[in-house]
Amino acid sequence: MSHPICIGAGSFAEIYVINGGRVAYKQIRSSDGAALRSEYDALRAVYRRCNTDSFFGIPRPLAFNDPAHDSTGYSMSSPSPPSSQRRRPARPVVAEEELLIFHSATYAMDRIHALPPNARARLRALYIPPTSTIEAGPVICRLYFGKTLGTRISRFYNTLNFPLDEGRYNTLVSIFPELPSATEVAQGIAEMLARLHYRASIDARDVEFILGGDGGAGFTFFVIDFNQVRYWPKTLERIDELVSAFFANDPYYPRPRPSDPLYVAFKEAYLAECTDDVADIGQAFIAAIEAEQVGRDVRSATSSSTPPP
Question: What is the pTM of this model?
Answer without folding.
Answer: 0.89
